Amino acid sequence: TPGESKAYLVMYDGTNIQLDKTTDSSNLIVGSTKIRNNKGTVTFIDNDKLSQQMEYNTLVIPRNGEYHIVLNDGTEVWLNAESKLKFPTDFKGDERRVFLSGEAYFKVSYDNSHPFIVETDLGNIKVYGTEFNVRRYTDEQTVRTTLVNGSVGFQSKESVTENYVKIEPGYQISYERGEDVVVKKVKVANEIAWHKQLFCFERCTLEEIMKDVARWYDVTVFFQDESLKDLRFDCNMRRYADIRDLFFFLEKTSNARFALNGRTVVISKK
């Protein structure tokens, strides 16, 4: 079955809260943090008793899951399957910094005097108030930032001085360790399709497609023939469709055959 709204919230004090649509929507207070969980969204609320220390929570999205979070400053973040966001209970100082592994769509609350920074292991994305998508899965070589509106800049971890490469809406920054930063125009709708509850693949290899499928449907993929990984497809379908619908389409347009055994997908030649 496709994924659903679910996550684990690891509070700064070690408290672990399971979040899904069935979780009690009443207010929760953990230490200095007040949160409200309601129908797949967790909201962090201003608390008069906030600690003076910088305390971090971590939202963990498992395979087969997704979640929407509203940070203390009003910034909204949608997290894709198998992602992790580390963020402070309350932003302090001259910047608003969060740490991301996986994929997330950000709608940042505007604050010109406190830039918002998304930190990944390959580099940082700096914004003031805008909408953009960041993809950085550790089993992929690159970090990709796609701008929907506003303005963002990217700086690699290897840069010794502050030198942010900026882009305009409709463009994407990608970076691989040891390589140059690449800026290119992209079809934004394809890059943020997951946020719109869609799968949109254009000239993507079957190996790339199955990585997203594995995360969303929580399956293990096995290729009996390595050459099948390089097959390319164009595909546009609902993200909440049955996995067999996708396999039906892929089989009809290629020489690949898909067999589903429990949570294992075996791909072979016809």
List the helices and strands and how they pair.
Blueprint lengths: L3 E7 L5 E5 L6 E4 L2 E6 L2 E5 L10 E6 L3 E6 L5 E4 L3 E6 L7 E12 L8 E4 L3 E5 L3 E6 L5 E8 L2 E5 L8 E3 L3 E6 L5 E4 L2 H4 L6 E8 H12 L2 E4 L8 E7 L4 H10 L3 E6 L2 E6 L1
Parallel strand pairs: 1-7, 5-7, 10-11, 20-23
Antiparallel strand pairs: 1-2, 1-6, 3-4, 4-5, 6-9, 7-8, 8-10, 9-10, 10-13, 11-12, 12-15, 13-14, 14-17, 15-16, 17-18, 19-21, 22-23
Task: Provide a compact summary of the structure.
It contains 3 helices and 23 strands. The chain has 270 residues and is mainly beta.
What does this structure look like?
The chain has 270 residues and is mostly beta strands. The protein has three helices and 23 strands.
The main β sheet shows up as:
6 strands, mixed, barrel
The side-by-side strand order for the widest beta sheet comes to 1-6-9-10-8-7
The ordered string of helix (H) and strand (E) elements is EEEEEEEEEEEEEEEEEEHEHEEHEE
Regions with little confidence, pLDDT below 50 for 5+ residues: none
- The backbone outline, from C-alpha atoms, is globular
In which range does the helix fraction lie? under 10%
Distance between the termini: 25 Å
